[in-house]
Design brief:
This protein has helices spanning about 15, 20-35, 40-55, 65-75, 90-100, 115-125, 145-155, 205-215, 235-245, 250-265, 300-310, 335-345, 355-370; strands spanning about 55-60, 80-85, 105, 130, 155-160, 170, 170-175, 180-185, 200, 275, 285, 290-295, 345. The chain has about 375 residues and is α/β, with parallel strands linked by helices. It has two domains: about 15-245, Aspartate Aminotransferase, domain 2 (3-Layer(aba) Sandwich), CATH 3.40.640; about 250-370, Aspartate Aminotransferase, domain 1 (Alpha-Beta Complex). The strands form three sheets. The protein has a seven-stranded mixed sheet, sandwiched between helices. A three-stranded antiparallel sheet has the order 7-6-11, with no helix packed on it. A three-stranded antiparallel sheet has the order 10-12-13. α2 (about 20-35) crosses α9 (about 235-245) and α4 runs parallel beside α5. About 45% of the residues are buried.
Amino acid sequence: MSEIRKVPFFDYPRLFLDDREEILSTVEEVGRRGAFIMQKDLAEFEEKLATYASAKHSVGVANATDGLELAWLAVGLKKGDEVIISSHTMLATASAIVTAGGTPIPVEIGPDNLIDPDAISAAITSRTVGISPTQLNGRTCDMDAIMKIANDKKLVVVEDAAQALGSRFKGQHSGTFGIAGSFSFFPAKVLGCLGDGGGVVTNNSEIFEKIYQLHDHGRNTSGDIKSWGRNSRLDNLQAAILNKRFARYQEVITRRREIASLYQTHLGELEELELPPAPNENSHHFDVYQNYELQADNRDDLKRFLAEKGIGTIIQWGGKGVHQWEGLGFTQKLPKVERFFERSIMLPMNMFISNDDVSYICKSITNFYRK
């Protein structure tokens, strides 16, 4: 393999360049209308999001972190209230709880590297009011087990579904199991805009009304001020771009699942790797593969080797679980999470890589372990 290909982890300029004419046309159309804040494009996107996720309501918000925070504020978190989270998640899962007034309690992961239902049960105290499962890398947790715990203990569930729009567990869409779920439209997401963006879905009309007021200065859907709120509105121009991209969303998911299948085919026999589940491995799960995160022996050497071959990889979130950031005051020891982050690495997973790129990545990895 003398050829050196350039395969970036994510080619951000192509988000614009590949759809340049459509984007410029959308910007001009929105600009000519002067439709910059809470116009028909946003309303259309919110309707599409709710319909797609099989939810009664959706609210476009500034980002997924805000979406989580607004959901917890709508629930009514109070100082001292504890919410159980996975330590294998972005910091935003925890920070949204803190900003809303509660205390996040990070716990262990299970064999699927998502939050362990047994760890949830073990962490429940008299102060526990909720669970915030992270639907990570485009895969939905075992929501049967989580919702049983929540229902038995009368706990609120708010889903961090930032990476999981379109992911399903037993046919039900991520984000719709609990009282609310938050999605991200960050540029590198499966459905991404050209900046920050997020959306919250809920089947609870009272929670919807509270989130709606909170995200727009306390105004309700009729424009009457009913409470204190703030500004966390999804930009109308970004909503217009998302409307265009939503039309192709199923094609994007299909392609990502094809790439995951190729990785499985070419890397599945390497004993040095632990791959994520293949697309059709479990009929209960439909994964959208926001990321392709695996565990690898000699992870750091592998990362350097792939960089020399022009292949971009990422070690997610600085290679630490939430509980490992000492400055945040956590004292937990979670050996499964810590071991995971010693071995985890993400390979390119996006619409810009070709089958030849995937083959090159896989041959490079195989050569690393067989050299």
